[in-house]
Amino acid sequence: MDGQLLPVLLLLLLRAWGPRGQGTGPGGSLEEPPKEEVPEEVPEEDGILVLSQRTLGLALQEHPTLLVEFYAPWCGPCRALAPEYSKAAALLAAESARARLAKVDGSSAPELLEEFAVTEYPTLKFFRDGNRMHPEEYTGPREAEGIAEWLRRRVGPSATRLEDEEGAQALIEARDVVVIGFFQNLQDEDVATFLTLAQEALDMTFGLTDQPKLFQKFGLTKDTVVLFKKFDEGRADFPVDEELGLDQGDLSRFLLTHSMHLVTEFNSQTSPKIFAAKILNHLLLFVNQTLAPHQELLAGFGEAAPPFRGQVLFVVVDVGAGNNHVLQYFGLKAEEAPTLRFINMETTEKYAPEDGGLVTAASVAAFCHAVLSNQVEPYLVSQEVPPDWDQRPVKTLVGKNFEQVAFDETKNVFIKFYAPWCAHCKKMAPAWEALAEKYKDHEDIIIAELDATANELEAFAVHSFPTLKYFPAGPGGKVIDYKGSRDLETFSKFLDSGGQLPAEKPTEEPTAPFPETPANSTPGPKEEL
Ligand SMILES: *[C@@H]1O[C@H](CO)[C@@H](O)[C@H](O)[C@H]1NC(C)=O
């Protein structure tokens, strides 16, 4: 057979036996053309079902327990999630779990976005029993094991039923933190509350029992949730309120508080827990772990902790372990260790003891009590004033020289508050330099910048970057927020008119001097639709 004939034959065969319903092959002509193409199988990519407007219904029939990710090709956080999502699918497949993972490109499925009220990417929804109505919003972790565990606890029971001592002991031994619900009646509403919480608290293992001999074994007479841990006190009891029943929020706070070590070492694994602990006050001990005299301080620090459990979280920060961002946040240098700092996470007010280097159980407790009873003034973080702060056209401000420069009654001061990592700040930097260059000979105008991540101000807090503020000359400490576009021309007009703002609602007045996009509507790091 020569080389020409074989491909032609193959092509003919393919035509004849090719996929049905395409209307191109012979023999399909007698059937009514289908109204919409329904493929028989939902395509897959890396173990993930790839859905479209048409195939969601089909996928739900075939896979009644389904987690669906709505993504867009251009969405950064979606790309970061992708490998973890595939790994989670592989984990579940290896266990033959009933749950499947799927994704749908929202940018080509607008009807689905509307049906499921998706407003940002990625959005994940969990469907059960093949039911298309009211899927559960997925707010779980974004890494593989967490995603898999979240689904396991929905597909299977979220707590292990315990029938005897052996089973209970085995569960308690298995993990560092194990939570067991002791309920006399498993039909009770409190049990449902307990199981719902167990679905969410993925980093703890849950058990459940109604066996009288287990109540007895653990010295209980009433319904109680007990947290067993292999450290610190070993056990903490949460008795169920007989009248009010089990409150999920209260129990959740209790478990978070008591599952943490009395003293937590700060690192990348513990920091999410530290911030999630919902304990507003943190006491940090900064030490250099390579120095024996520093290590010896940990004992006294830990000794002071028990009475503050649930009120103040005790944290140790090793200054030599990639924790520079923490040091910077507190305005500290590594050489200042050992030292203590206290922070209220809600107000972000920071406190330093008068003698930071003295760390004994008594001095630590005294410092905590003093802060909690408002006997210590918070301090503001500031860098040192650089010796050449006023040598360049753009002046460098820090916390320590801010007031003196910004509120100078003889000067009009225009300040950029930035963060070193902020892309919008970098983008506007050349315009800011050019502005400073242009006005450098105006005695009464100062163009300046301040790194707001390393300097705190008493006058106001900076929450978004860049923030631009104008401090006109004259008495009264006036401050004008700049909301115009960030280019040399607009900046200049603003300065020349003595800090005139563009109209408040530029969209309603197309002839306003600044019809450009206002500064606060520039896209932030969130990926909206
Ligand atoms: C910790 O102490 C060691 C020993 O003195 C020193 O070499 C190291 O630089 C210190 N680490 C930091 C971050 O200061």
UniProtKB/TrEMBL annotation:
Disordered: annotated span: 22-41, 496-529
UniProt keyword annotation of Zinc present: no
InterPro entries: Prot_disulphide_isomerase, Thioredoxin-like_sf, Thioredoxin_CS, Thioredoxin_domain
Enzyme Commission code: 5.3.4.1
Record domain Thioredoxin: where: 1-156, 371-500
One family name in Pfam for this protein: Thioredoxin
Keywords on record: Endoplasmic reticulum, Isomerase, Redox-active center, Repeat, Signal
Top-level taxon in the UniProt lineage: Eukaryota
Signal peptide annotation: 1-23
Major site of localization recorded for this protein: endoplasmic reticulum
PROSITE patterns given in the database record: THIOREDOXIN_1, THIOREDOXIN_2
Location in the cell: Endoplasmic reticulum lumen
Catalytic activity, reaction form: Catalyzes the rearrangement of -S-S- bonds in proteins
Family, similarity comment: Belongs to the protein disulfide isomerase family.
Protein name as catalogued: protein disulfide-isomerase
Organism the protein comes from: Ceratotherium simum simum
Record lineage: Eukaryota, Metazoa, Chordata, Craniata, Vertebrata
